[in-house]
Amino acid sequence: MFKQHPKGLFVAFFSNMGERFGFYTMMAILVLFLQAKYGLSEEDAGTTYSWFYFGIYALALVGGILADASRRYKTVILAGIIIMFSGYIVMAIPGNPLAITIAGLSIIALGNGLFKGNLQAVVGQLYDDPKYSKVRDSAFMIFYMGINIGAFFAPFVATGMRNWFLKTQGFLHDGSLPAMCHAFQKGTLQDVSKFQELADKVSGTQVTDLATFAQHYIDAFAKGYNYAFGIAAGAMVLSMLVYIIFNKHLPTVEKIKSEENAGKPKATTNITSFLLGGGLMVTTSVIFYFLLRNTVKDAAALGAAVGLFIGFIAIMLQISTKAERPRVSSLILVFFVVIFFWMSFHQNGLTLTFFARDYTVKEVGPFTNIFFNLESILAFIGAVAGLVLVFRKNTTQRLIGGAMFLVLGGLTYYFITKNNASNPIAPEVFQSFNPLFIVALTFPVMGVFAWLNKKEMEPSAPKKIGIGMIIAAIGFLVILIASIGLVSPHELQYVQDGVTKYNPVPDSSRVVPYWLISSYLILTIAELFLSPMGLSFVSKVAPPRFQGLMQGGWLLATAVGNKFLFIGSKFWGNLDLWQLWAIFITCCLLSALFIFSIMKRLENATK
Questions:
Q1: How many angstroms separate the Cα of 514 from the Cα of each of 285, 339, 368?
Q2: Does residue 389 sit in helix, strand or coil?
Q3: What is the pLDDT of residues 475-514, one digit of tens each?
Q4: Nearest to 407 by CA among 373, 380, 388, 368
Q5: CA dist 277 to 38, 51, 256, Å?
Q6: Contact at 8 Å (CB) between 334 and 598?
Q7: N or C: which terminus of the chain has fewer CB atoms within 10 Å of its end residue's CB?
């Protein structure tokens, strides 16, 4: 896999695994943790979630500015790893009030901002060498696959830790219970008999004091998540060790020579960069301050995010030279498309997670259950990999593949026979399917692109981005079809004597998990067409003195898209489910139409 690539790709590949483990731990459990621990509504949890994801990507712009100004990319990356580790430690402490939890999320966002964009910039710098420039796109595909290996394990580990701690407290897991516990405590639970039934089931005995049970179950549920954050902190330590020991294989970039800055005085550029960086840090601090006080309304918050992005565009166009401006403007146009892709795609950690919890069956049959347990899904993956090797031309590989298929296939069959007729599943595990599909599909997609390249038919990077938007729309169409006829969240709540009464989703409105898995599969294909190709496009088109800054711009656009995530949680309790998914289908199709309308301009920028 690394044969045609520099050793530095190996370092970046494994350094990023730990960070992605923590990221996908957050994606799998953050909104569920916020609701279980603090009793937040979907809308309030979605607001905090969107701010966290905005911070992660927006602060990458600050990291890009620091790295570009100092040219010490590797030092800034290391600082990011250390800061992220400290943030996960804060999140791992049980019993924190909401303000401290948000402070921990802010620390993680800052560390990620220093780390993420600059590591991507360094990977791009590896392929500025003419010796490796031809394999730049495949390098980012491999790098992207490495991101998702760590991500695959995170939901299983987080779920396992939460379930283990619940078991130590004498409880089983039921994802619908925390909301019912909070509603019972507030006196807004409509059907207490259903609550009693579930409380008895997870306790294994008849519960006589529902009030005590509600508090104990909430505490145990939340602490299990805290300990999952602690495992994410441990993964950051592994990333840090890999990076410190092997970062000598990553390039050290020298200061840009003065002649490369022709057309713009160096002092002016440095002052502008300083003001931009200071302004961004002050703005971000103010945003998080108001978030802690819970005084920012959605419209004002979104305005601040969009204003930050517009300010970035204005300054980039101002400080770029005449020769640099066509490249910078082309990247900015792509950034607009990125906003709407990530607004839609990252619903997987928000509204799609709500759908997994509330509208997907709680129990599955023996075969389906192999995809919701780590040991059985690994056996299944190994059996499929062995079957693929059987069809290779190399005799040794065919023999190894045959052995893998027989042994691991047999083990998979054993797991199926061992499973019960009905097996409980956890909604968090759905977050493992996206990274699993990334790892499984990266090489097939690369193979298709390579075949098309030989035929001189491979789409350009901008064209792949446009195709990815269309594929994303299809992914949401699948979940829209699954949602037709289901009772919507707003139909389950009503106001009585000025109090909103809560009702859980009835079992009759729960669908089989394959709907959601299929949606994730299609969205993953869309991601492979867009995200790694976008990173490659930015590294190829960005002017040399703005490499970190333009990677930061890509992530800032992603941040604005993530701030739009609250649209999903806001409309979750106000629209029918199919109407909610139609919003994202429309956004993806309009974005695809836009990018194809400017295709020639984008393709010219890469020449």
A1: 42, 28, 9
A2: helix
A3: 999 999 999 999 998 888 765 666 667 788 888 999 999 9
A4: 380
A5: 34, 19, 19
A6: no
A7: C
Between strands 423-424 and 494-496, the pairing is unpaired
Nearest one of 340, 257, 273, 363 to 312, comparing CA atoms: 273
Query: Which pLDDT belongs to residue 288?
Result: 44
Q: Integer distance in angstroms from the first to the last C-alpha of the chain?
A: 28
Say which amino acid occupies 98: L
Structure tokens belonging to residue 383: 């059996």
Spatial distance between the Cα atoms of 264 and 595, rounded to a whole number of angstroms:
31
- Asked if 430 contacts 377 with a C-beta cutoff of 8 angstroms, the reply is no
Backbone angles phi, psi at 496, to 5 degrees: -130, 120
Contacts of 453 (CB under 8 A, 6+ apart): none
61 φψ region: left (φ > 0), alpha (ψ -120 to 50), beta (else): alpha
Parts of the chain with a pLDDT under 70: 1-3, 137, 144, 146, 253-304, 494-500, 548, 607
Helices and strands (DSSP H and E) totals, the chain = 21, 4
Q: Which residue has the tokens 């003065």?
A: 258
Phi, psi for 424 (deg, rounded to 5)? -70, 145
Quick check: 324 and 546 in contact, CB under 8 A? yes
Residue labelled with tokens 């496009």: 537
Reading the block at residue 374, the tokens are 């780590």
Q: Which amino acid is at 419?
A: N
Q: What is the value of pTM for the model shown?
A: 0.80
Helix (H, G, I), strand (E, B) or coil at 404: helix
